[in-house]
Amino acid sequence: MAREVNSYEDQNNRFYSIGQGIVNFRGKQMLKFFIANTMPLLQKILGFKVFDAEKTDYFKRLVIDTMKYRQENKIHRPDMIQLLIEAKQESDQNWSDDDLVAQCFIFFFAAFENNANFTAAICHELMENPEVQERLYEEALEVREELNGKPLTYEAVMKMKYMDMVTSETLRKWSFAGMIDRLCSKDYDLTDDDGNVVFKFKAGDYVGFPVVGLHNDERYFEDPSSFNPERFNDGNKQNIKTYTYLPFGVGPRMCIGNRYALMQAKAMMYYLILDFKLERSPKTVKNIMEDVRGFQINPIGGFWVRIVPRDP
After folding, report:
1. What pTM was computed for the model?
2. Distance in angstroms (rounded) separating the CA atoms of residues 306 and 272
3. Top-confidence range, 3-12, 89-98, 116-125
């Protein structure tokens, strides 16, 4: 059965509430997550799951029921559910329901809170750096004039170089993917520039890459605690050492939603910055990075920005 959600009329609807319960990694769920990732044998012995069965069953039924409803009623929509329907029909692999739900679950899990935090972090940095905000506003004005009353387009967004610099620096400083991991598929010898073996990886080894550490390492980014979009101008970004900037990972396993996240944030900021100024609110915490807790980079006190309408 198809389900509908209207978050404007019901802000605490079941879909939203369950989603919040999944992505807010704190307390017991945080402990379960780290045990599952670092000590899978212990997890197997204890017999627990990271996510509550009620929440996972809800998403499983949501995806499977929607796929079944669309196929029975010949409904076609350009979204991820449709891609999974086509993949199951065209693939030689025998995809199970769990395989299909897992793809949707990961896409949802990665985007649900991260995209909101990404946009909030941009607003926070523009609020704290009025000169950056003003320059971004001037670029948005130029784009609006070129569009001549037409809606924002993908091509127009791609031309906004300063917008790209601002979003790139936000992703560096905030590092929403604190760590990425990979599983070695074969033995591999890691060597230095002189050909000396530094480490021998074995098939099955679990390798973690500390994105937060790389993004805040002074060897790669001077004064990493400061917000400086100029790191990503045409001249400077060519000098960034390869594999030290990994907001979405890299290679064939990089985040599947990276373009979606960037386009969503850029489009939102374009329309927001044209009509409003972003200023500090009485509730804005003094040092927001010290207020961050949990798996997601989300301050305990929340993101608070005062939105002031611009003069018409």
Report:
1. 0.80
2. 12
3. 116-125
